[in-house]
């Protein structure tokens, strides 16, 4: 772990007074900073908080929002809940996979620009089919409109 990373993590811990009861908030901030939970940072955090590694891994794996896997800069979530599924979310997912060269088994692009995930309901069923890109909701998608969105992000990133 570089001294720069250490300093960042120390700042997060400092903001939470290095308190064990702040563990979830601390992990949340680490994830926000790195978009996932790097192993060395989790181990360092456990040491600093004087808790076991199994405890911190227990928390990190319990909550769906936490990820131990590195993620891309842009997170695309495709809803496959009932309302979205019946309004054809699967063709949208497949179109995005194809556009980005991804599959069910490979969900992050090699350039680390995109991660594609499916979720069970985004809480906007009236707007189905819905996707979010970096938590911004895009309603009533079609495969074509979803690809347009992805392409516009690609252009911005160029
Ligand atoms: S099922 Fe997709 S938003 Fe609820």
List keywords for this structure.
158 residues; alpha+beta; Glutaredoxin; 2 domains; four-stranded mixed sheet; 4 strands; 49% helix; binds FE2/S2 (inorganic) cluster
**Biggest sheet record:** 4 strands, mixed
What's the CATH H-level homologous superfamily of the largest domain? Glutaredoxin
CATH topology heading of the largest domain? Glutaredoxin
**Rg calc:** 18 Å
Task: List the total number of helices.
Answer: 7
The CATH class of the largest domain, by name, is Alpha Beta
- Give me the side-by-side strand order of the main sheet: 2-1-3-4
Uncertain segments: none
As a percent range, the share of strand residues is 5-15%
Helix fraction bin: 40-55%
The second-level CATH architecture of the largest domain is: 3-Layer(aba) Sandwich
Order of helices and strands: HHHHEHHEEEH
Overall pLDDT metric = 95
Rough outline = elongated
- The tally of domains stands at 2
Give the structural class. alpha+beta
Bound molecules: FE2/S2 (inorganic) cluster
Q: What's the end-to-end separation, in Å?
A: 30 Å
The count of strands amounts to: 4
């Amino acid at each position: 772990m570089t001294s720069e990373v250490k300093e960042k993590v120390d700042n997060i811990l400092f903001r939470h007074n290095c308190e064990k009861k702040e563990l979830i908030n601390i992990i949340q901030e680490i994830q926000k900073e790195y978009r996932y939970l790097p192993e060395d940072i989790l181990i360092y955090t456990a040491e600093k908080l004087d808790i076991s590694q199994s405890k911190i891994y227990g928390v990190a794996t319990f909550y769906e929002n936490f990820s131990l896997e590195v993620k891309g800069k842009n997170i695309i979530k495709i809803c496959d809940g009932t309302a979205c599924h019946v309004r054809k979310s699967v063709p949208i997912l497949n179109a995005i996979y194809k556009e980005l060269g991804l599959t069910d088994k490979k969900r992050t692009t090699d350039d680390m620009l995109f991660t594609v995930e499916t979720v069970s309901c985004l809480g906007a069923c009236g707007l189905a089919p819905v996707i979010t890109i970096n938590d911004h909701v895009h309603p009533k998608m079609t495969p074509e409109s979803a690809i347009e969105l992805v392409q516009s992000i690609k252009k911005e990133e160029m």
